[in-house]
């Protein structure tokens, strides 16, 4: 049985890890290791070219590569490219036709015009019809995420998984208990708790020196988008009478702005939230200046840090808040990028099947354990239960040099057959909450749709709305002033974005 795992440590690296590829080194020939039902398995090793993102100063040691090649019956050559120049290298490789057999495309580049035009012109294989031939790929592919990672309604890539939502509420349970309050379950409950945390002396020092909520200068990963989801706002875009509309043109978005303005007017939130960084937000929460954060949940590290300051402090987490449309949470696409397979280097269906067989094999137990933890007795020890591993401090440096770059690069799906034995109860609770979030996460229906205007002007136009949202919350714009900014967005290219996205949506769903 495989075990779903907390992705915080590894998935961020997976998002930035495996991309354009270039060819393989070393060999082995144990086709008997291939899973039953595998397609494209040859008697001689298959050559798979990979170009990977380098997040270190130096390329990783290849200690585990011989075993990886033996297990997958491949020859692998890794071309490690620094992350800060990876996107440029990928675009250049597309332009010059010097592509490897597997091209990893980061999330920020999935809708890059070079990639989209490459898909449209037939540069890459459509792999959807082949996936059913690979048992493990078929088993772990999530239909919702696969749809988000599609182009024009078709599957061209193997996505690498990212939690659909890590969002939630972290709060001071000891403050709640001292004030005799229960965990908030609805939007108004959150307001009442924040008011009590601000004016009820929750730390018991006899001073009014606490805040309800500490937030940061990020509408998406801070409190605002989560609160908007509680009120029933769409995620980025929503459907109204069969047409796509941006979230900021919905009444639910307006309700969220009014709620945030109420928190600001009543001084229940830090007044400088528009210029507060994530690091500063967490520092202020750790110091006991505020009793709640609504954001990406990092409670395990926060609890450890806060208890060094105050041993009596108790940080708890929650994710389900009742709103007008039920329990909802803001969610992402569920993927951090994907692998595409160019026809210029993968010249036949037989070669494509060999490449897909490699990705399928990466999901098997022995290979997954190798690229996740490394080699037993060198990089980890197996605990007596034979289900969990122990990482010794003296092997951590070895793992960073010899294992983690490959884990970041090659672990496409968030699965583990072995678990770390040192996880805390709170870490397990965070993972359970992330899995539960997937059931209530609000999906963006435009994920996977392409708008040329959005590609060219989307960032510039979004700034108009972000600034207007902040100005409304701070009381510098009223409803009419916000509406005027929306009209500015529409005149500056927003109407074209709506037209283009609705056209793409209609073509896929006709």
TrEMBL record:
Keyword Cell membrane: yes
Gene3D superfamilies noted in UniProt: Periplasmic binding protein-like II
Keywords for the protein's UniProt record, in alphabetical order: Cell membrane, Lipoprotein, Membrane, Palmitate, Signal
UniProt signal peptide: 1-28
PANTHER family: ARABINOSE-BINDING PROTEIN-RELATED (PTHR43649), POLYGALACTURONAN_RHAMNOGALACTURONAN-BINDING PROTEIN YTCQ (PTHR43649:SF33)
Protein's recorded name: Peptide ABC transporter substrate-binding protein
Organism: Paenibacillus rigui
């Amino acid at each position: 049985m495989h075990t779903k795992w907390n992705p915080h440590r590894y998935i961020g690296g997976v998002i930035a890890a495996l991309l354009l590829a270039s060819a393989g080194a070393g060999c082995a020939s144990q086709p008997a290791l291939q899973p039953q039902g595998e397609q494209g398995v040859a008697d001689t090793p298959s050559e798979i070219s990979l170009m990977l993102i380098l997040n270190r100063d130096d390329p990783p040691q290849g200690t585990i590569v011989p075993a990886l090649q033996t297990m997958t019956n491949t020859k692998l050559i890794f071309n490690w490219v620094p992350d800060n120049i990876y996107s440029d290298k990928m675009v250049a490789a597309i332009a010059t036709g010097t592509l490897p057999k597997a091209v990893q495309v980061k999330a920020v580049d999935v809708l890059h015009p070079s990639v989209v035009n490459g898909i449209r012109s037939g540069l890459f294989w459509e792999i959807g019809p082949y996936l059913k031939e690979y048992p493990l790929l078929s088993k772990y592919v999530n239909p919702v995420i696969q749809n988000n990672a599609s182009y024009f309604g078709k599957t061209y890539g193997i996505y690498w998984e990212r939690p659909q939502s890590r969002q939630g509420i972290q709060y001071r349970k000891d403050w709640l208990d001292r004030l005799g309050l229960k965990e908030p379950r609805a939007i108004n409950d959150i307001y009442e708790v924040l008011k009590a945390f601000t004016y009820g002396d929750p730390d018991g020092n006899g001073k009014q020196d606490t805040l309800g909520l500490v937030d940061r200068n990020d509408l998406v990963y801070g409190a605002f988008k989560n609160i908007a989801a509680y009120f029933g706002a769409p995620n980025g875009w929503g459907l109204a009478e069969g047409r796509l509309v941006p979230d900021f043109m919905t009444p639910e978005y307006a309700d969220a702005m009014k709620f945030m303005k109420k928190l600001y007017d009543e001084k229940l939130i830090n007044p400088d939230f528009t210029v507060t960084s994530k690091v500063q937000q967490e520092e202020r929460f750790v110091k006991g200046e505020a009793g709640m954060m609504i954001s990406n949940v990092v409670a395990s590290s926060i609890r450890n840090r806060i208890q060094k300051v105050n041993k009596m402090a108790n940080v708890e987490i929650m994710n389900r808040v009742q709103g007008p449309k039920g329990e909802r949470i803001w969610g992402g696409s569920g993927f951090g990028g994907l692998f595409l397979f160019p026809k210029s280097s993968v010249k036949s269906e037989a070669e494509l099947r060999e490449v897909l067989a490699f990705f399928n094999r990466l999901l098997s137990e022995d290979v997954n354990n190798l690229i996740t933890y490394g080699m037993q007795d060198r990089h980890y020890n197996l605990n007596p239960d034979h289900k969990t591993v122990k990482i010794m401090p003296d092997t951590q440096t070895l793992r960073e040099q010899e294992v983690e770059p490959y884990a970041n690069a090659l672990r496409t799906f968030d699965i583990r057959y072995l678990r770390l034995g040192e996880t805390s109860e709170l870490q397990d609770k965070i993972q359970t909450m992330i899995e539960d979030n997937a059931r209530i996460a609000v999906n963006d229906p435009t994920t996977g749709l392409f708008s040329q205007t959005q590609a060219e002007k989307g960032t510039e136009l979004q700034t108009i709305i972000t600034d207007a949202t902040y100005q409304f919350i701070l009381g510098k714009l009223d409803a009419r002033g916000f509406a005027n900014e929306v009209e500015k967005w529409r005149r500056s290219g927003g109407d074209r974005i709506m037209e283009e996205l609705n056209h793409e949506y209609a073509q896929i769903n006709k």
